[in-house]
Amino acid sequence: xxxxxxxxxxxxxxxxxxxxxxxxxxxxxxxxxxxxxxxxxxxxxxxxxxxxxxxxxxxxxxxxxxxxxxxxxxxxxxxxxxxxxxxxxxxxxxxxxxxxxxxxxxxxxxxxxxxxxxxxxxxxxxxxxxxxxxxxxxxxx
Length: 141
Prior knowledge:
This protein has 141 residues and is mainly alpha-helical.
């Protein structure tokens, strides 16, 4: 096998592994551990949620946070989306533990996460696709 062919196969296999990983659903404990790691990485550990869990009653929001309780909830609709998207929503909700509203100070905190714009674009695309059920492939067609 040539070096170029080897590199192509390595790329193919890494892509397959990434696709499998993105389909794996994290449990609530793993989600809480992930939030802790993200807080350490982007907020020097200052955002400390008391609970982080998946919920099935959020169909119009991707996540929510109750700063006074320290609780973070993520919509089950995020399950199976790319890791960077789930991480963005977690970072967004963690930021609410530090700044409750969506003012300039809040958005400055999110600048620390390098894939903010990409993740927001992905989520906007999901919402747009959900609004176009007549497209082939949408809504299970």
